[in-house]
Amino acid sequence: MAGAVTRNLNKNSNTLAEILKPPGNNIVGVFIKENLKHAINSLTDSPHSNDCIKEIAKMLQRFSKKFFLEFNACTDYARKATKELIIIDKELQCAVGEQCSDQIVRPVNAFLIVDVQNDFISGSLDISNCSAQQKGHEILEPVNNLLDTVDFDAVFYSLDWHPSDHVSFIDNVKMRPLDETSPIDADSAQVFDTVIFAGPPPMKQRLWPRHCVQDSWGAELHKDLKVMDNGIKVYKGTNPEVDSYSVFWDNKKLSDTTLNAQLKMKGTTDIYVCGLAYDVCVGATAVDALSVGYRTILIDDCCRGTDFKDIENTKEKVISSHGVIVQSNEIKAMAEGRDRRPELGYKLAMELKNPDSVLSQRNGYRVGE
Fold it and tell me: The Isochorismatase-like domain covers which part of the protein (predicted)?
């Protein structure tokens, strides 16, 4: 059945691609020609092809409305393309069968709250003192609201947890030799400068004020952040010789944290990420989550960062890796499966094709739940 469905999809998507050639440089044409056919072709060998097919069908329906209509494409152009999308969806309904019409992959949602700690809000590394001058405490209300209103399958809190001799602290810069290629010497180095420590191999390191030292007040989660009884804390940055922005592993990827193992144990498919700082630990975590294979949703209004340019670069990386950036008022519908994003459908198709991905290997993987 999967082969027949794929052949029909390819036939109709070829027609769609032809329709989309003029004007060819708009966002609709680029998305379809670059991503849609790739996603359809990936179904051929998928062990979960029926479910994957339904995901693509829903993606196509949403896509036709969201992009063709919102971007005010030429009426005839939009009508022809939308008609072809409807044909594709009808082919899917016939091939998959009436009994499968409600079968979808049930997401298992994890909420990951990154580094909402005292030092980043009002302590030694208060991000409001950085160039973007954003206030970390502003995320507390929307984050707490999500914890109160959305039934996540798991909630994780990450904490920077540095020993006192950590390599990232500006006052420790003379504890280790710098590489001859370092653009700044130890005597001249200032907060937020980047130096290169001697190897092997040489290691770039941005220098920060002393922050989040283990068992200090600055390392504690902020008192106004709601901590769930079943919430899981993940500690990072514990190795004095290497920094750790991502909650998955250190910056050299020498060792990982407990996060990925715990996500796999829970059968997680979707990760909702927020916290501090947007362009440092939050961004690194979101990109790593995507690279590992999780469908990743970055919650824009639940993040604050240090530098506007770096924040924009973070957003571009997440989007280009097939992640999604949304506002907190959109999360409940997404977590409950009522709001299905085409980007996440595409990510699902790619991951189900890969037998080594976390989604393919998900423990207790079932459909129609």
Answer: 110-310
